[in-house]
Design a protein that fits this description.
Pfam family, one: HATPase_c_2
Distance between the termini: 21 Å
Largest sheet: 5 strands, antiparallel
Radius of gyration: 15 Å
Organism: Candidatus Cellulosilyticum pullistercoris
CATH superfamily: Histidine kinase-like ATPase, C-terminal domain
Structural class: alpha+beta
Catalytic activity: L-threonyl-[protein] + ATP = O-phospho-L-threonyl-[protein] + ADP + H(+); L-seryl-[protein] + ATP = O-phospho-L-seryl-[protein] + ADP + H(+)
CATH architecture: 2-Layer Sandwich
CATH class: Alpha Beta
Enzyme class: transferase
EC number: 2.7.11.1
């Protein structure tokens, strides 16, 4: 029997190879709730974008710790991606579609847009020099 409420937390170094680990770990945890293929895809994409942002923009490909928390209660899934990197000067500006500080990056400026499309709620809290927390929520079985 699946518990009504559950949570996990994982931490890893900010190496780009660990993005796949985060994506698979969170989707395996959420699989307990018997989500649809589309719901798992949405969650994997959102986690991938948030972790990639932490590694590339938060830590600028330097070594640091990325923390991923995932919890659920009933059919609501909440995911937090936390870094202690450089932070975002203007969250509002950063969440504007196609806004980027990395013009050379493929698909630059679409990370937050993808997260917002895939999840029901996306909240970003950031402080320059202290890091960023991306909190995402999704209701399964709508």
């Amino acid at each position: 029997m699946v518990p009504k409420k559950n949570e996990i937390q994982i931490q890893f170094l900010s190496h780009s190879i660990n993005e796949a680990f985060a994506r698979v770990s969170i989707s395996a945890f959420v699989a307990q709730l018997d989500p649809t293929v589309e719901e798992i895809y949405d969650i994997k994409m959102a986690v991938s974008e948030a972790v990639t942002n932490a590694i590339i923009h938060g830590y600028e490909n330097k070594e640091g710790i990325v923390t991923v928390k995932c919890s659920y209660e009933d059919k609501w899934v909440e995911i937090e991606i936390i870094d202690e990197g450089k932070g975002i000067n203007s969250v509002e500006e950063a969440m504007t579609p196609l806004y980027t500080t990395s013009l050379e990056e493929e698909r630059a400026g679409l990370g937050f847009t993808v997260m917002q499309e895939m999840m029901d709620e996306v909240e970003v809290c950031s402080h320059p020099g202290l890091g960023t927390t991306v909190k995402m929520k999704k209701s399964l079985g709508k």
